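From the methods appendix. Each design record in this collection lists the tokenized structure first, followed by the designed amino acid sequence. Records were kept in a plain field format so they could be parsed without special tools. The example shown here is representative of the layout used throughout.

RECORD:
FOLD TOKENS (174 positions):
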């Protein structure tokens, strides 16, 4: 089970229906602790080959730095989740936006980086905002992030604007 799937399962549990975003964050962390994975404070892990990955430095989801569940401003029907993993030379964050449909939270849009060949393929310093509803009751997601690197270098700020989609794995870039 992936981290996104675990989060989805927790926020859709019967108990979670009455929890605040802070309580949902705690519930996700408790679930991770139940499978012996817990978010840890940021620490740099230097990868120096497979022998450097010990039980202390390796986890199935990577080293989880933070998980944050939030209710976006003026969107009572939405729930956003940011997961941040420690990686060599930085961090990698992912964003998931869920919408309440009847009795379940449904993933409406996601932004995650997977299978990158170098550390600069990750998303670091992720920030986002969700627009107010427009006249068609639609909204969009504005994201900004940078990319980690192992040495000092000039690094740009990358922006994306996304609309929710019926298939969140296929981003609709505006």
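DESIGN:
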């Amino acid at each position: 089970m992936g981290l996104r799937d675990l989060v989805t399962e927790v926020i859709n549990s019967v108990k979670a229906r009455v929890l605040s975003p802070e309580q949902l964050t705690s519930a996700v962390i408790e679930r991770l602790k139940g499978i012996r994975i817990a978010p840890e404070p940021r620490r740099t892990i230097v990868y120096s080959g497979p022998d450097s990955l010990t039980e202390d430095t390796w986890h199935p989801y990577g080293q989880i730095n933070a998980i944050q569940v939030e209710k976006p401003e003026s969107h009572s029907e939405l729930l956003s989740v940011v997961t941040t993993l420690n990686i060599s030379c930085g961090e990698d964050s992912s964003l998931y936006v869920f919408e309440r449909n009847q009795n379940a939270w449904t993933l409406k849009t996601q932004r995650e980086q997977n299978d990158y060949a170098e550390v600069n393929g990750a998303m670091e310093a992720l920030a986002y905002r969700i627009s107010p509803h427009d006249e068609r009751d639609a909204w969009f997601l504005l994201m900004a992030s940078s990319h980690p690197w192992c040495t000092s270098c000039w690094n740009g700020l990358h922006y994306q604007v996304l609309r929710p989609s019926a298939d969140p794995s296929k981003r609709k870039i505006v």
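APPENDIX NOTE: The mean pLDDT is 84.
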